[in-house]
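Look at one record.

>
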Amino acid sequence: MARSSPTALDRALDELYAASPEEFVLVRARLERELRDAGEADAAADVRARRRPNLAAWACNQLARTNPEGVAALLDATQRVVDAQARAGPGALAAALRDAARERNELVDRLTDAAVGGLRGRVPQPDGYRASIAATLDAASLEAEHADELRTGRLTRALAAPAGFGPLGVPRAAVPADDERGAAERAREALAVAKRDATAAANAAKTAASELTSATLRADAATAHLEEVERALERARANVAQTAEYARTAGARAGETRAAAEAAAATFRAAEQAAPKRR
């Protein structure tokens, strides 16, 4: 089935979400103005309502542009885990689920590394966003309402890891039903691993929160500055238009003055010629 041509709104959103966080507000204002001037009022309103993604979401969005194959592979791997989980039972089916989950986890890890790398040089401690990025990739690939946002690179916020399965664990259905003692031992081991992972995630979250607060303050200051610049540009444009109108009015008046002066001079010359000459 042939893919439909992108609309004016699609093209505008692609450009908007490709913009860096510090340029987002200025690009949004420009795109809104261009759509409005082109008669695309609904699209302009949609663009105006878009909010700047936080850094974790922005980093995930860029994967859709720099590594669309990887994002597509994650979405496919997630679907395979869902399908395998629905079929899972003893023996080979449970092994197939473990393999599918392991493949998906490895994809999440690789894409997280790439997204964190995209933050290097932009924030002081990019690794502080690792847990938030991994959770966002995990949730967005599993939740239908966010999967298309991940595929198109239009996420607006970081997401919490889903309660079902995620990059740090294997689904419960993947554990074969052996004897109760073996299952209990594995459950204790899984709980210990989960506790260690939870502690590491909590520490990473604290670091991410601190970095996010700092980045948000800087971004808000930059946004305020950009908005002030845009207002100054609008005022300058209005002043230019007003000055041009004054110039046109002055030019017209100057023309009228010249015409009046020339008429007066002609009248004077005619009067002078008509006056009797002195002897």
Summary: Residues 20 and 242 are 35 Å apart (CA to CA). The two ends are 106 Å apart (CA to CA). The longest helix spans residues 180-274. The chain has nine helices and no strands.
